[in-house]
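Summary of Year 1 activities. Much of the first year was spent building the evaluation harness for sequence design. The harness presents a backbone, in tokenized form, and records the residue chosen at every position. We chose the following record to illustrate the format because it has been used consistently in internal testing since the harness was completed.
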């Protein structure tokens, strides 16, 4: 990519897309384009194709998606499947039609089988059944990987895919029903401290293990892959560290300064028992994450205003 190359960041106002936008701007790329969902509904093929025909982006970062935590995934199963399939199919096909030079598709670690051996290597894809709470989202993301692979094998398109682990960072979703665990815990502990509440409820048994990455690390990895990787196989992007949900709750409560009790609501699902990425493919290419979980949470909490919650 040249500094003047026209680069489209699909989803540039979301947590991932905005981080990629910041990272590219910092690296001196100065012809970045984006559209809000009000300006361009990516689920509509004609609109997406016209946008690509008019703008003719040379490079595409595909960070637009319908996302959410375990409850949202489980509750809005139809939309998680349909919206994500439409968004990625429209963008990838329009990129093919208009001769985009390179595209990076971003997926998720939930593409792996629920009981995949740990840490999860790229070759474990499609070797077992998926976690039921996020099967629709996972199926859509697997379809995205396959679109990139097949436009490459049939038409020679340089479309690559990266699978990030659980992410957090600026512009996250803090809705207590729809969000992922980390923003939910920050909001719950902050609110409890402010209102002098004695307890905070966490969902599930607290036993599941998760790997968390600051979105600025993912943005850095995305740029690295765009500059250095041109193969068919997708690449895991993680930190290599995992933590139980209970330990995460203890960590967030200490950062926020909440001193009450943790109560478990076991009527809520645990989801996948463990989801640790094997990062050797990316490490061998020469990239490693730099933001530790504790530093990352401190940074997010320090920069947060309650306005982001509503
Ligand atoms: O982050 P999370 O919603 O998604 O939940 P997944 C992770 C774990 O934290 C689960 C527990 O075991 C939750 O039960 N948890 C505890 C909480 N307290 C809370 C809370 O207050 N809110 C939330 N949300 N969880 C998602 C997938 O799975 O991860 C997506 O559904 C995607 O498809 C995404 O892959 C990265 O890690 O279980």
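For this record, the design step produced the sequence shown next.
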């Amino acid at each position: 990519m040249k500094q003047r190359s026209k680069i489209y960041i699909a989803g540039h106002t979301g947590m991932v897309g905005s981080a990629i936008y910041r990272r590219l701007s910092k690296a001196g790329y100065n012809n970045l384009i984006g559209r809000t969902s009000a300006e361009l509904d990516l689920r509509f093929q004609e609109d997406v194709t016209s946008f690509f025909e008019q703008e003719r982006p040379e490079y595409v970062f595909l960070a637009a998606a319908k996302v959410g935590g375990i409850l949202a995934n489980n509750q809005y199963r139809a939309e998680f499947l349909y919206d994500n399939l439409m968004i990625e199919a429209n963008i990838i096909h329009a990129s093919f039609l208009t001769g985009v030079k390179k595209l990076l598709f971003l997926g998720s670690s939930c593409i792996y089988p629920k009981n995949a051996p740990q840490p999860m290597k790229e070759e474990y894809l499609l070797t077992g059944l998926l976690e039921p709470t996020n099967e629709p989202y996972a199926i859509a993301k697997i379809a995205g990987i396959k679109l990139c692979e097949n436009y490459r094998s049939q038409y020679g398109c340089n479309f690559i895919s990266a699978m990030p682990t659980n992410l957090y960072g600026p512009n996250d979703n803090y809705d207590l029903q729809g969000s992922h665990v980390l923003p939910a815990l920050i909001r719950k502990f902050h609110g409890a401290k402010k209102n002098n509440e004695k307890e905070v409820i966490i969902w599930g048994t607290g036993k599941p293990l998760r790997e968390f990455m600051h979105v600025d690390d993912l943005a850095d990895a995305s740029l690295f892959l765009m500059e250095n990787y041109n193969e068919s196989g997708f690449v895991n992007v993680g930190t290599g560290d995992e933590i139980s949900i209970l330990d995460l709750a203890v960590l967030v409560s200490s950062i926020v300064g909440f001193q009450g009790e943790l109560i478990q609501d076991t009527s809520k699902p645990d989801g996948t028992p463990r989801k640790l990425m094997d990062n050797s493919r990316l490490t061998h290419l020469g990239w490693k994450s730099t933001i530790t979980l504790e530093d990352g949470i401190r940074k997010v909490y320090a920069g947060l205003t309650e306005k982001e919650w509503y």
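Residues 224 and 230 are 11 Å apart (CA to CA). Quantitative recovery figures across the full test set are reported in Table 2.
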